[in-house]
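Entry 14. Ran structure prediction on the chain below.
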Amino acid sequence: MRGPAGFLLCSLLLVAPHCTEETAQDTQPDPKTPCANWMGGAPGYPGHNGLPGRDGKDGKDGQKGEKGEEGVQGVKGDQGEIGAPGQEGPRGFPGYPGQKGEKGEGTFVYRSAFSVGLKERAPHPNVPIRFSKIFYNEQSHYDTSTGKFLCSIPGTYYFTYHLTVYLTDVKVSLYKRDKAVIFTYDQFQKNNVDQASGSVLLHLSAGDEVWLQVYGEGDNNGVYADNINDSTFMGFLLYPDLDVH
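Output, structure tokens:
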């Protein structure tokens, strides 16, 4: 375009940017307005998603909630292993006495005893004195025909004798298996009646024999008995040998 018209157009183009720049400096448009004093362009495409931010700090615990409803009971679990024994607890108070039990069977009681007296006035010396008056001989362990006690139950026995002495002196001894165990002597005093006695504990085995016997000469057999004076001999089992019975 030439001539005056072309010249005018060129002048306007030169002056316009200068005016626009001054106007821009004086008034800054609000970038938030839809049209910031100029014609807006077409909307752009959405940008890509940014990277996730960092985890924030833990918040404070809230208030305790209300108790919920009881749930359904679950299936019973397997039995666990037996634990170690606990410490012994304190001793309890004594209990009440129980009822009386039934009577049991009694244990067997071993019995062996005799008590005999003299009928003859003067027994023969150096032979067993035969005491034929029987006070007690339930087990028949004393033999009146021989004057000897025969042990049937091994154990410990007690023997004793009390003799009336009259007319002459008395010397007696208690024998066990043909051996004298104890001796008793009494010297007779004229116009008087004396007493002689002795006792002993003996352990006897089955088959052992025990008896009384006058020893010495015939002048020493003053053992006496009548209707008002007795000479007695007795013995009994204290306790049997438990290892045998």
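Helices lie at 4-26. Will compare against last week's run tomorrow.
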